[in-house]
Amino acid sequence: MSKIIDAVSIVITCGDEIFAIQRQPFLKAFPGYWAFPGGKVELGDESLFIENKLTMGIEPKFFGATVREGKEELGIDLSVEIQNGNVERIDYLGLAVTPDFNPFRFATHFYRYHLKNKYEFVVDANEAGLAQWMRASALLELFNTGTIIAVPPVVKIIENLGRNPDIKSIPDLNFSYDSENHVPYIESIKSVRQLMPLSNTLPPAARTNAFLIGDEGPRVLLDPSPKDEAEYKKLKNTIDLFGLDKILLTHHHPDHHEFSTHLARDYKVPMLMSRDTNIRLSKILPGYFDGIEVHFLKEGDVVTNWLGRKVIVHEVPGHDEGQLALAPEDMSWFIAGDLFQGVGTVVIGDEEGDMRKYFQTLEKVIKLNPRVLFPSHGIGLGGVNILVNTLEHRKGREKAILEHHKNGLNEDQILEALYEKVDPRLWPYARKNIRKHLEKLVSDGVI
Question: Given a cut of 90, is residue 176 above it in pLDDT?
Fold first, then answer.
């Protein structure tokens, strides 16, 4: 069981307006997400507690943490504002505990400071790219139109304050689901439902995202791949909450299609994929698609509609020759499959992998510049920084491989030199990456 760390979040309001920030896209934690200032409780925060009728009943360390975080991130001393009479009330909106399937867990206490007069904050640019006062209902509208991404507790606060700016507490801020009968799912962007069944994937990941989209068109489920019969039943129960019209496979790797044909037959729905994916799976698993209606997809095809926008197919080879991605026409989000990983790193290997095409695909998506990227393993990330960093990392790795090759090292020696700090159980996959880099260098005429 992961250790749970205490944290605070400061929801500052004035009248019917709320102060919200968009986290910088280069941050490691929740880049590009809309949120409220805050952070983990630190030793000594209790020393910042002040006696006041507004602070009665608040645990000193939590109050102190809001004061410290307010100074660090917003340039406001909430203790002074209380003493000056600019804080009308402090409401404890509620507690949200990170779910148990997450490796990093926080117990976040949301405190609302309601001001008499708006404050001109000095926002820490290392934390926030955007920061502004706006009506709570306007922030809710941004979420409802798919314009912003936020974690579930923040979404609940936005929804409640957007409907009732005077609300003083919000019950059940926790992310919760029936773990006995359902798989966890979140909706960090409106109507992009991320279902997370356990799957037979590579460590450190344990789950493969199955996205359910299509609120204004066919309901399309991407990459359902529960690890066993028990998880399959939970996934079906979760799908039944929303309905299903089609199943789409992004590519042919097992942790993206196991039990997908069971679902297609049980729900009597067609399956969508690239021709390449169909050929590979039919060769590996003869009869796999027997009795199922199969449609082939290519670049530019429209598969459904999301919030009034067409959802379009993008071909993204490199990790797998037949890999497909989906995005709405305005690039609000991009479901990238295994183009990058929120957990671990991408393997470019076997006969379907091509490092040159992988580089080209990364460059293509970076140029498309979607607002949010969704991987197959992990949560959505704001901006394309992860792709820029992935491309630079791969270029750096290729440069190191080339240098070692020039110095006469063979494949085994390069592996030991570059991956000595990596879990040896992952070395077979690292070897595949090295081999594909060497193939690219030969193809490029460098060696």
Answer: no
367 and 259 part of one domain: yes
316 contacts 390 by C-beta, under 8 angstroms: no
CA distance 46 to 198: 40
Domain of residue 100: give its range.
4-163
d(CA 443, CA 437): 10
- Please tell me whether residues 208 and 331 are part of one structural domain: yes
With a cut of 60, say whether residue 423 has pLDDT above it.
yes
For residues 360 and 439, membership in a common domain is answered with no
Per-residue pLDDT at 1 exceeds 60: no
Q: What's the rounded Cα separation, in Å, for the pair 159 and 92?
A: 17
pLDDT digits (tens, 9 = 90+) for 108-167: 999 999 999 999 999 999 999 999 999 999 999 999 999 999 999 999 999 999 999 999
pLDDT, tens digit, for every residue of 231-260?
999 999 999 999 999 999 999 999 999 999
- Exposed/middle/buried for residue 12 (C-beta within 10 Å: 0-12, 13-18, 19+): buried
- 179 occurs within a structural domain: no
User: Which one of 105, 131, 163 terminates a domain?
Assistant: 163
**Integer Cα distance of 379 and 377 in angstroms:** 7
Residues 102 and 244 in one domain: no
191 in a structural domain: yes
356 domain residue, yes or no = yes
Tens-digit pLDDT profile for residues 70-84? 999 999 999 999 999
Tokens of 152: 């579930």
The span from the CA of 398 to the CA of 436, in Å, is 10
Contact criterion met (CB below 8 Å) for 365 and 387:
yes
Pairing of strands 185-189, 294-296: unpaired
In a domain, 169, yes or no: no
- Domain end call among 384, 408, 432: 384
